[in-house]
């Protein structure tokens, strides 16, 4: 038998609770498994950035060694849930920039 999969997908942005009843074929053994979840989605848009294919990027202009350059990126969440956002800094060729040289 394939492994069963159970998903909890509440339709609204609030906590939902339920239970999963698992019984043997002859119903002499059963288990109740509590389920809970929180509905809703985050919907994050990035302002002040440009997009090419699947990447967002910010033009930093001319960069001079040992000089601080900054760029402001604005995130806007119009969804019903909080969002966790992280970023990776890359050079023009897509190689990661070490964290001792640049940070978010």
* Beginning-to-end CA distance, first to last residue: 48 Å
Q: Work out the strand percent.
A: 25-35%
Q: How would you classify the helix and strand content by structural class?
A: mainly beta
Mean pLDDT equals 84
Number of strands: 6
Strand order of the largest sheet: 1-2
Tell me the radius of gyration: 23 Å
Largest sheet: 2 strands, antiparallel
Relative helix content: under 10%
Q: How are helices and strands ordered from N to C?
A: EEEEEE
Q: Point out poorly predicted stretches.
A: none
Overall body shape: elongated
> Number of helical runs?
0
Description:
The chain has strands at residues 15-23, 30-38, 44-47, 50-52, 55-57, 74-77. The protein is elongated, with a radius of gyration of 23 Å. The termini are far apart. A two-stranded antiparallel sheet has the order 1-2. A two-stranded antiparallel sheet has the order 3-6. A two-stranded antiparallel ribbon has the order 4-5. It is an all-beta fold. β4 (50-52) and β5 form a beta hairpin.
Main attributes of the structure:
104 residues, mainly beta, two-stranded antiparallel sheet, two-stranded antiparallel ribbon, 31% strand
Describe the structure in brief:
The chain has 104 residues and is mostly beta strands. Helix content is 0%, strand content 31%. A hairpin with a 6-residue loop joins strand 1 (15-23) and strand 2.
